[in-house]
What does this fold into?
Amino acid sequence: MPWLGEFAERGDLAPLDEILKDAAINPLDFHPTIWGAGKWKGVQYGIPIYCTTEILAIRKDLFNEQGVSFPRTFDETINIAKSFHDPDNKFYGIAWNAGRGMPIAHSFMFFLASARGSIMKISKPNMAGLSFYSDDALELTINNDLSLEVIDYMRRLVDVSPPGIESVDWEKRIQYFMSGQVAMTYCWTMRAARFEYELNSRVKRRVAYLPPPSLSGKHVSSPVGGFLLTIPSYISLGQRKCIIDAIAWMASPEAMKAHVKNGFPVAPRFSVCSDPEALDSSPIVSLVDGMARRNELVTWSRPPIKEYGLIERVLGEEIYSAIFEGKPARQALIDAESKIYRSTGKQ
It folds into this structure.
């Protein structure tokens, strides 16, 4: 999803609006936020085939044993992680993405989104859609007080994380949790399915899935990622019509329901999320559907503008330096904005 703007701007993708008129795809059956992720400047270029949201997974058995309430804020998450953190017995409070580059860049953007912030200026009425971005609209909001609070949270997370957290990525954080070594982990719902389905998981039926904690008093926001099916622009119009029929089948409620039943617990369609059999297959389905209906899913945490790849690379270095290498947080934020603007020539 975050690459859409770059590919569309380069002319790599075929517009789909015309051929969608005769396709067996009903946009109204998709959550508006998810359907909007396939748009660029008002044009539909992609069909959501699978979405995944960043959530917090916790060991509900341990929480119940100690009578601990589920965390809803950054501070509560830190305090609860401290209560479980026991390095002498090789058990730790929380696992998260902190590796240099893409992992820590994603964490920063996700934590910022869960605090209702973004790396760039967002038009609030258009927060559910992505079609309002334009070539000259890059106005970064990385250097602000909210970002400082997020960096402070990330630094506190380090103190209650497993050793070597500075190299942990998506796979390692899942392994820590699945092996029973941490009380909590941030994770994509796509990967969380492994907790229940993999044979070597030590946490089967012991996990609760929660919306990501936010700053105290802030509205809950859960970052969304996932995949879009697109058609290359070099494909002829006649072939595009055949391909959109194939996409319609791949993204159909029946196909998505089959995915849900086979361990991929998030589908972007209302008809699938309301299906009793799909709901029974995983508690994640109802969690994400509830957040979608409350407008808590956001796709602007990683805005799919053509500069996204550059922004991700810069944040991956600067935020890592602020968390692990002693660089002052404010200076890291200033440098991040300066490097991005300098590279894009926007300022």
About this structure: The longest helix spans residues 308-324.
